[in-house]
Amino acid sequence: MSEVKFDFTGKNFVVVGASSGMGRQTAFELAESGAHVLAIARNAARLSAVRDKYPNLIETAQIDVTNASDDQWTDLISLFVRRHGKLHGAVYTAGTTGTTSLRLHDGVDARNIMETGFWGAMKSLEITTKKKYSHEGAAYVVFSSIAAYGGGRGMLVYSGTKAAVQAAVHSIAREISERKQRINSISPGWVETEMTENYLEHMGQSSQEISGGCFGKGKPRDVTGMVLFLLSDRASWITGVDFIVDGGCMFGT
After folding, report:
1. Per the CATH hierarchy, to which homologous superfamily does domain 12-245 belong?
2. pTM of the model
């Protein structure tokens, strides 16, 4: 049992990328803390499993962030707001990876990485920060990665995407501060998720080859505590910052 408890009773949050990994864990922990959650992802079967764990607090919506229109985003968010009230925040965890080197990469894969990890985030924020959908003082978290600080082999586009997220957060923080809203990013280290397993498969590596840093490889719950803190009122004086949560990986390099 965690030593730190958050109380989000009566509050409303959107989690994008909620069908697996850190997005799913974030949705669960917000629901455990009493929040109403709109869990968004493109995998309908996995979303159903997320909703079934907390059916009274988690609603789901299927969307592909790489090609969703403004109308699709607006319809999803406005329906949730009509049911529960304005948003108190949102979390964007959606991302994908693949091998992209300078001289050898698939252009379609490269664009998909950028569309999912960056432009999808920007579109969701454009909608969820609107005055008619969000409370003054709402908080937002977008996932970056320690790859933004030093990309590994074959991570050209992924690293660039995550660096773009951090740069955008600096700018957005100034823009939304007019309504006392906050936005921060989180850069996890090596966390064992479906996405990192897919990356290893692409690279022809095994998980045993990854050290993960001083504390080894992480689990989603090793990161989501920072997410909930940044969404809470205890972080009301924090905005525009990237938080590295990596088990000492960068410290050890």
Report:
1. NAD(P)-binding Rossmann-like Domain (3.40.50.720)
2. 0.90
